[in-house]
């Protein structure tokens, strides 16, 4: 029986579609997921720009990976390879380029080390901390294959790195005016000078270290500088006319004319680094502060801290630490003459309402406030002792001049002393 004309056309269209699918469907060359094998990853110091044997900022490293893929070469399998160079101041997904496009392919990339900051590393040669991780995927391998490289300084692969790896520039931790004509600057790691070695007792005059400004007085001349034994702190001597006030503060611009300050690997402190100089005799503490943008108008970790111990560690002998109302969960060690000042009412009797409260959740010391120095005053605090056997305040043997004034000392365990003066005080 002959089909109606419209049905014949429909059948013809359907047949054409079926035939088209049969004739033009592409042939898949993809293997199952898991077709990638990373045979090797090699890391080398390819350009030691300053020829010092360190892999440091400004030098170049090269990452070479050899990869087998049953799906084909880089282009055919759409292979993507990246390397995590966060510790070298770059990103976690730096691309590697396909050099030899075959089922066993070479992928490579050369990168310049930049300042990695807090993510940086400082390790010796052939230390596993310098290894990097390569990740490889293709069109059908959703989960990447990963492999680690050799460490820099591996004698079989990388012979250029002989001293170590350092990918973070030195930074300034704090700076203080410490006396009438002296200041001190602390660094994150040992430092030295290019044209003037800031050795123990060395003198670097003529403002080579930096330009110092005293607030309200202007620029003063630095006449000498020398480092401590660890080379992490530099003391400055300057001339001021008229003499600076006891509570003076200021700032210093480091390296104003040349690149002077560097670490052992040759990483330079940036030129014209501006450092605020607090007065080391006055510190401020507030448990609500949490960084440079929230420090009550003071300079974070210079004269502003969130813990009482931080203020104690920073203050000069004989200085004063002003502690704002709040709760302070810490065990405190006082090892220098100072005044710890909380809140006292106008009547001068006991701590003020809302005075700073010190308590201890750690309970691994014999005292909440241990005093190991002469001439210490603690005034205007509420000290809550809830640790069995922990005394609120302990004056160390041989110390004198401890004044505990207008404080409330609570022993919630019934097993501790409020103030314990040890033998010999």
Model description:
The chain is mostly beta strands. It has 3 helices and 34 strands. The chain has helices at residues 5-24, 74-77, 308-314; strands at 36-47, 54-56, 60-69, 80-84, 94-95, 97-100, 104-112, 122-123, 133-137, 145-148, 164-166, 172-179, 182-187, 191-193, 210-214, 218-227, 233-239, 250-254, 261-263, 273-279, 282-285, 304-305, 319-323, 327-329, 332-334, 338-341, 357-359, 367-371, 376-379, 382-385, 391-395, 402-405, 408-411, 419-421. The strands form 8 sheets. A 7-stranded mixed barrel has the order 12-13-17-16-15-18-20. The protein has a 6-stranded parallel beta sheet with strand order 22-21-23-26-29-32. The chain has a 4-stranded antiparallel beta sheet with strand order 1-3-7-6, with no helix packed on it. Strand 9 and strand 10 form a beta hairpin. The N and C termini lie far apart (124 Å). The relative contact order is 0.08.
Write a concise synopsis of the structure shown.
This protein has three helices and 34 strands. By secondary structure, it is mainly beta.
List strands and helices in order, with pairings.
Blueprint: H1 5-24, E1 36-47, E2 54-56, E3 60-69, H2 74-77, E4 80-84, E5 94-95, E6 97-100, E7 104-112, E8 122-123, E9 133-137, E10 145-148, E11 164-166, E12 172-179, E13 182-187, E14 191-193, E15 210-214, E16 218-227, E17 233-239, E18 250-254, E19 261-263, E20 273-279, E21 282-285, E22 304-305, H3 308-314, E23 319-323, E24 327-329, E25 332-334, E26 338-341, E27 357-359, E28 367-371, E29 376-379, E30 382-385, E31 391-395, E32 402-405, E33 408-411, E34 419-421
Parallel strand pairs: 2-11, 12-20, 21-22, 21-23, 23-26, 24-27, 25-28, 26-29, 27-30, 28-31, 29-32, 30-33, 31-34
Antiparallel strand pairs: 1-3, 3-7, 4-5, 4-9, 6-7, 8-11, 9-10, 12-13, 13-17, 14-19, 15-16, 15-18, 16-17, 18-20
């Amino acid at each position: 029986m002959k089909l109606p004309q419209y049905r014949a056309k429909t059948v013809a269209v359907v047949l054409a579609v079926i035939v088209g699918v049969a004739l033009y469907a592409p042939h898949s060359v993809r293997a199952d997921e898991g077709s990638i094998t990373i045979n090797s990853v090699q890391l080398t110091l390819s350009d030691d720009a300053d020829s010092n044997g360190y892999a440091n900022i400004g030098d170049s490293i090269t990452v070479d990976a050899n990869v087998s893929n049953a799906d084909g070469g880089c282009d055919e399998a759409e292979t993507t390879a990246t390397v995590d160079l966060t510790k070298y101041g770059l990103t976690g997904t730096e691309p590697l380029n396909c050099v030899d496009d075959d089922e066993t392919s070479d992928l490579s990339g050369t990168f310049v080390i930049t300042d990695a900051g807090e993510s940086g590393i400082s390790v010796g040669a052939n230390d596993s901390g310098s290894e990097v991780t390569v990740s490889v995927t293709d069109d059908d391998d959703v989960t990447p294959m990963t492999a680690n490289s050799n460490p820099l300084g591996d004698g079989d692969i990388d012979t250029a790195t002989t001293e170590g790896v350092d990918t973070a520039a030195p930074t300034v931790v704090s700076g203080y005016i410490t006396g009438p004509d002296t200041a001190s600057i602390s660094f994150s790691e040992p430092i030295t000078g290019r044209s003037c070695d800031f050795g123990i007792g060395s003198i670097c005059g003529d403002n080579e270290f930096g330009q110092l400004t005293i607030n309200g007085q202007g620029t003063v001349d630095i006449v000498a500088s020398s480092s401590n034994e660890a080379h992490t702190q530099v003391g400055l001597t300057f001339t001021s006319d008229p003499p600076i006030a006891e509570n003076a503060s200021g700032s210093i611009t480091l390296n104003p004319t040349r690149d002077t300050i560097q670490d052992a690997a040759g990483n330079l402190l940036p030129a014209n680094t501006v450092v605020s100089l607090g007065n080391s005799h006055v510190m401020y503490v507030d448990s609500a502060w949490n960084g440079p943008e929230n420090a009550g108008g003071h300079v974070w970790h210079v004269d502003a801290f969130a813990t009482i111990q931080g203020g104690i560690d920073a203050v000069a002998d004989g200085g004063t630490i002003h502690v704002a109302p709040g709760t302070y969960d810490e065990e405190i060690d006082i090892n220098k003459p100072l005044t710890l000042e909380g809140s006292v009412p106008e009547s001068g009797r006991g701590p003020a309402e809302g005075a700073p409260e010190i308590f201890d959740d750690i309970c691994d010391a014999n005292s909440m406030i241990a005093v190991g120095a002469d001439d210490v005053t603690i005034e205007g605090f509420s000290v809550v002792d809830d640790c069995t056997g922990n005394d609120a305040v302990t004056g160390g043997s041989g110390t004198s001049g401890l004044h505990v004034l207008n404080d409330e000392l609570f022993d919630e365990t019934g097993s501790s002393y409020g103030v314990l003066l040890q033998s010999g005080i």
